[in-house]
């Protein structure tokens, strides 16, 4: 065990959890109507709790167990069987590696929340998210990070997929799942209501930015120059994408919005994620500059041309950003084209099929969507019996 590596990954684990609680909750919560903000908080918090338990029960073993095959890790490490305080994963205590990866298993299904806010049933959120993490996310983790079929020497050749911190594993899977749910669910009854609290959005985005240092820097799994470089390029990409999003918005609409500025931040962060362990600061600058424009155009296409109500633009920002960053690894000659594109296609098809099947299966157990009256009155009071703001008290 290396003490410095262990100390850094303990901090990184806390930072990645901070991304979901409270970062993502505030970012998403500020973007919805006031009558639905508590439901968003409820979804984020509940998913964090449920994924933690499921990761212990089976998720970690499926992703990082060594008793399975190239397709999954088996159940040998279910309930952390055989893992104690002296067990090591590289230079880290294995239980710390478990905890660090658990925070990724929390935020990935939590990202999908943005596609279905304001109109989805709470029961569906819980059952679907749990099954999706176990049956879609955990196997993909094994394929790319756990020694599975897409690593070096796997089905794509001697050079496997390069995905440092989750462009495919986290952002492509969550983005595609979000898009499919949005299509199946159908649009909200009222799509024109503006964000109820842009201040929440900015605070949440700022927390995500800070937490992302743990996300990308922690993925080095060591306290060394590689972690420092990952943090640096992450910051540069986020800063650049924020400004290019705002500039593009100013050119197109005459005004640059604060919500747009911080959405650009997230686009830059998602885009640099797969490449953060490989690129230099100049390459990060290029990735961020393109991401701010590319992801904004993706928002316009999905919203206005395809007329899909992916409420908080999960696929356009996370999905497109993660896919773009994964491709840029090959563009810069830091990975093989066959592996990068092949990995995107294989994981994309798998995610789409598993997500669609799970939607149909879970819909047989619990309603997918709330009724019209509940949607009109808001999920906070109708589903959870609470209001976020009581002006008469």
Automatic annotation (TrEMBL):
The chain crosses the membrane at residues 6-28, 40-63, 95-117, 124-145, 165-185, 197-215, 227-247, 259-278, 284-302, 314-337, 343-365. It comes from the Bacteria. Gene3D superfamilies: Ammonium transporter AmtB like domains. One of its GO terms (molecular function) is ammonium channel activity. It comes from Ruegeria atlantica. Its main location: membrane. InterPro entries: Ammonium/urea_transptr, Ammonium_transpt, Ammonium_transpt_CS, NH4_transpt_AmtB-like_dom. This is Ammonium transporter. It is found in: Cell membrane; Membrane. One of its GO terms (cellular component) is plasma membrane. Keywords: Ammonia transport, Membrane, Transmembrane, Transmembrane helix, Transport. Belongs to the ammonia transporter channel (TC 1.A.11.2) family. Residues 7-389 form the Ammonium transporter AmtB-like domain. It is a multi-pass membrane protein. The keyword Cell membrane does not apply.
